[in-house]
Amino acid sequence: MAKNFFNKIKESFISIFPIVALVVILGVSITPLSGYDLGKFAISAVLLVVGMALFTVGADSAMFTIGSSIGGNLSKSRKLFTLLIFSFLLGLIITLAEPDLSVLAGQVSSINKWLFIFAVSLGVGVFLALAVLRIIFQIKLRTVLVISYVIVFVLMLLVNPAYLPVSIDSGAVTTGPISVPFILAFASGISAVRSGRSEEEDSFGLIALTSVGPLITTLFMCLFVNSDIEATQTVITQTQSGTFLDILQNFGLSFIDNLGEIALVLTPIVVFFFIYNAIFLKYPKSQILKIIIGLLYTYFGIVIFLTGVTTGFLPIGSVIGYQLANSEFNWLLIPIAALMGLLVVFAEPAVHVLNKKVEDITHGVISKNVMMITMAIGVALSLVLAIVRVLYNFNYLTLILPLYIVTLICSCFCTPIFTALAFDSGGVASGTMSTSFILPFVMGICVAKDINIMTGSFGTIALIACLPILAISILGLIYRLITHYQKAKEKPKAKKPIEIIEFEFGDDD
């Protein structure tokens, strides 16, 4: 495991370095940052590298094992009601454990934080059970998605427009570093037991459905909210100053807070697994020890990663957005946003988890590099649209609704596995970095342009989730056209004529 950790350190550094380099270049040129801010950012970058490496090692050895073993065991029981109840409870528990959801819910004072979190968790639980039913009864994923999004579209038209962006964002933040490895492994466990021809396809698609569930529940909840939407946080727009001891104190306080918060949200998952193992799985002590070590890697990885993101990346994002929008170089907002989109997706832990799983499940037919590049292009376009929306005050509904419709239409022409991969990729692209760096960046621009940060910046995460879906769907269409062309080009082999060989026999024969 130690050797694997150092390999992950190298991979994490390669992933995070581009976005760090971009911020540093901006911080010493167009949007000058203080030495205090740059020092915090440098320490944050180191923490992100270490945290991502620890997390990915832990996810491989613990979260995947737990999810696949529970999914496989529940499927073997052949008790449909039990499978659905456990699926619902797992969806509820792992969503409550998502730190991204807690951050999003804390931004809105008009809705009770825990009511918002429960509504989102309820949507994930119900749709995880629905996703399991889809696998068992072999219902086409695109059929379920089309029906679900039609319901979403109707609710979009009915809900208070001020609450629409934050409601749509709720579906994007549910698929973060805790839920993604667990849900992917859970799907693999269930589909492996079925051993059908669509096992590879059924291993994906759960993230897609657990992303659309919260959209329905939160939009429905917001139908009954009549008050004006308000923010609960003050956006940092100016560079900070302080000593090195101040920097260490900030990181120390954040680390302690994250230790308690992540312990609190991971505990239900750990307790659930050990109770389930004692009753059903009954793993040997050696396997349990390996899982415990993996859970510790996961725990400290998330704590360290979040400490770096919230202490260094979050304030830097809003400062850069504000200063860039107010500078003489504000015409660079769109190209810099596009570049950020290209780079930030490489720093999302959940993206690496999904892409690695895609490569493993498809035996290298769909490589993680192809997935990563396609998703990066999608996120870049998403940020361009987000900035254009802010600068030119576009109505959010007229922007997001056509995008969803076009995405659904494109997905209907893809092969089933690409449909599943496309919608799963949208869920993982909008993770921790989007919530804690990109969203503050857009908030800073809103403050500079005197735009309501709740209606102007929220909805960005949903855009980040939508465009990668469209990008992967287009990749699927291209893949399908190429394979169709190759099959048509191959001429059937002509049958060789039967050659009759006549032997001459002499008198001696």
Write the layout of secondary structure elements.
Elements: H1 2-27, H2 35-76, H3 80-96, H4 99-105, H5 113-137, H6 141-158, H7 164-172, H8 179-194, H9 199-202, H10 206-222, H11 244-281, H12 285-326, H13 333-344, H14 349-361, H15 368-392, H16 396-411, H17 416-429, H18 432-448, H19 453-457, H20 460-489
Q: How is this structure best described in words?
A:
With 509 residues, the protein is mostly helical. It contains 20 helices and no strands. The chain has helices at 2-27, 35-76, 80-96, 99-105, 113-137, 141-158, 164-172, 179-194, 199-202, 206-222, 244-281, 285-326, 333-344, 349-361, 368-392, 396-411, 416-429, 432-448, 453-457, 460-489. Helix 6 (141-158) runs antiparallel to helix 16, helix 10 crosses helix 17 (416-429) and helix 15 runs parallel beside helix 18 (432-448). The chain starts with a helix and ends in a 20-residue tail after the last helix.
